[in-house]
From TrEMBL:
Protein source organism: Aliidongia dinghuensis
Signal peptide: none
MF (Gene Ontology): isomerase activity
Keywords: Isomerase
Top-level taxonomic group: Bacteria
A Pfam family reported for this protein in Swiss-Prot or TrEMBL: AP_endonuc_2
Boundaries of every Xylose isomerase-like TIM barrel domain copy: 72-161
Keyword Ligase carried by entry: no
Annotated protein name in UniProt: Xylose isomerase
Keyword Isomerase among UniProt keywords: yes
Amino acid sequence: MAQRLLVLQSLWAMERRRPDGAEWPLDRKLGMIRDAGFDGAGVRFFDHGYAREVTGFLRAHGLVWQAQCYPETVEDLRPILDRVRELGADHVNLQPNARPYRLEACFPYIEGWQRLAAEAGIPVFIETHRDRMTTDLMTTLQLVDRFPDLKLTADLSHYLVGREFAWPVSQENHALIHRILDQAWALHGRVASREQVQVQISFPHHRDWLDLFMGWWEYGIRSWRRRAPADATLTFLCELGPKEYAMTGPDGYELSDRWAEALMLKDLVRALWARIEAEEVSRAPQS
């Protein structure tokens, strides 16, 4: 079995948060994800009833999911793992919702979460995210130095806007991002600029930022393909979030069609994977 890419859609990103209060009901959101050809969804697992309902639909339609969680302590992960044992998941995506002042104070969290994941036999990837233990790029890289087996979910939008890299991005900063990607076992998809955590990828004047992220994701996919087993699966979660991630005009409505952009992102990433795969096949020795 060959390596596979699964492109998921975030259910959080299906929230609209419009001034008129119009939201899609859950069954419509799930139907849209299915009918648009996504491979599954990112699902918050802290609400047991919600997780059971959503995963029931996804399973019935042959789709997959990643379990999102936000533990504040080591033990907060335990009920999430219990839920995954019951409901399944491709992996657990953990936002480390703790903010120790000193680097050394982070170690017991990482060690504890890794221990619980190993005991449960469930893959747990720690997400790079602002307002979390991984909020700072340099701190996260120091954690990688301390835990070289640390498996990350790379959401690079937070580091571009957090570090406010100068444009064009320097080779030094590319190298720092590549170090994160070399630890990444899943990718979250959002395009940032150096001042905004999310820009509209359908706007022509944001093309440079889209190209930057497509280049980083290409590096990340190639790195993952070298490290991962021959039958492994990589997930890419489209996560174009609602306001205040999405920019809005003076009327409070978004400046672009975020759902259409999610479909655009899905197709771009699948085309990128196909190109990489084709290149690797063409370079393989012929028997």
